[in-house]
Design goal:
By secondary structure, the protein is an alpha+beta fold. 46% of the residues lie in helices and 12% in strands. The strands form 4 sheets. It has a 5-stranded antiparallel β-sheet, with helices on both faces. Strands 1-2 form a two-stranded parallel sheet. The protein starts with a strand and ends in a 16-residue tail after the last helix. Keywords: ATP-binding, Nucleotide-binding, Transferase. GO terms for molecular function: ATP binding; transferase activity.
């Protein structure tokens, strides 16, 4: 097999580590494609919230080349979870080739029709039913403790602490007092209790509109699943319906959530004695855990990783956070503190916009 390897950085005499990895990936890809006699030129599709980078190339119709640096990304877990998901009847990208030691993958390309780009008020019900149907299949899967880590109390707390460390302390430059630490500890403990009290199932962990793709045959493709855990049944549901990147009207979200409750009862994922009120409480509180965590993660992506684009999504996450925290008396002290102490600081930052209007474009 004879091939020529090129990429966008090939003319540089001094290459960064990232450029060197791109060239090595192009060379590796050339050995995975039979009868390649034309140059392999990688075209970047950018990166995700992690450190993976995605590339298309002319010889790879319906294929993506993936650079997943081993220092930060577990490609073996990606391959294993992809297989697990497909075994449940849910479409994950087929793995064409993998070199997990280098962190190079060649995978199926689902295209560009992300739900984030195509969903609107006219097609939302049909698209989101596809997403809910796939989610139900994942939730009905059999636990594999050797493959899927537990979403336990320690991990829930580590995630919540990202809020304190990166959103509060780093982004807003606010030093927590002893009383504020106590308030957060009490709030976080309540959220952890709700997360652990509900039935435990497969958790994709980022099941939202940017990770769900409408394929050319009308099926739904699921990506970015390598961080999967075994945790609360409402986690992925609220990740989907209270999406950090777009907002649906509250009555629509409630209707979708309660429709899924009925599907979950029929599938014996939850007991029929679980009332609508209790299910929505699970949904709200586990969603609050997620959104508090995301405030920290988006701040960290900006400050540590230089990914500034996530700052524009903070106001919507603040909106979700306050809407839930203000709706429950037990969480009201947290909401009052956030509004009185953190919100005035946030308003001084260039990324801030009125959280009460955030996401109103959908």
């Amino acid at each position: 097999m004879s091939s020529t390897i090129t990429n966008s950085n090939a003319q540089q005499t001094t290459q960064s580590p990232q450029d060197s990895r791109e060239r090595a990936l192009a060379e590796w890809v050339s050995h995975q494609i039979p009868d390649t006699n034309t140059p392999i030129t990688l075209r970047s599709l950018g990166s995700d919230a992690g450190f993976r980078r995605y590339f298309r190339f002319d010889q790879g119709q319906n294929l993506l080349a993936v650079d997943a640096p081993p220092a930060t990304e577990d490609s073996s877990q990606f391959v294993a979870i992809a297989r697990f998901i497909r075994d449940q009847g849910v479409r994950s990208p087929r793995i064409i080739a993998a070199d997990t030691s280098q962190g190079f993958l060649l995978v199926e390309d689902f295209g560009d029709q992300l739900l984030f780009r195509i969903a609107n008020t006219h097609n939302a019900d049909s698209l989101y039913q596809l997403a809910l149907d796939s989610l139900l299949k994942l939730h009905r899967s059999t636990d594999d403790p050797a493959l899927i880590p537990r979403y336990d109390r320690a991990l829930l707390r580590r995630e919540l602490d990202i809020f304190s460390d990166w959103f509060v302390s780093q982004l807003l430059d606010h030093t927590l007092t002893a009383d504020e630490h106590a308030l957060l500890d009490s709030t976080f403990t309540q959220l952890e209790n709700i997360a652990l009290a509900q039935p435990q199932t497969f958790v994709h962990r980022d099941y939202h509109s940017r990770n769900l793709i409408l394929c050319s045959d009308g099926g739904l493709g699921v990506i970015d699943f390598q961080g999967a855990l075994w945790g609360g049944v409402t986690y992925d549901l609220v990740s989907l319906l209270r999406d950090c990147y777009l907002r649906w009207p509250a009555p629509q979200v409630k209707a979708w959530a309660l429709s899924y409750r009925q599907q979950a009862i029929t599938s014996k994922l939850i007991d029929s004695t679980v009332s609508e009120t209790e299910f929505l409480r699970w949904f709200d509180w586990l969603g609050l855990q997620r959104h508090i965590k995301v405030l920290g993660i988006f701040s960290r992506l900006n400050l540590r990783d230089g990914k500034t684009g996530y700052l524009q999504d903070l106001p919507l996450v603040i909106r979700y956070t306050l809407e839930v925290a203000e709706a429950y008396p037990e969480l009201r002290p947290f909401a009052d503190w956030l509004k009185a102490t953190l919100l005035p600081i946030a308003k001084t930052h260039p990324w801030y916009s009125d959280y009460q209007c955030a996401g109103a474009h959908v």
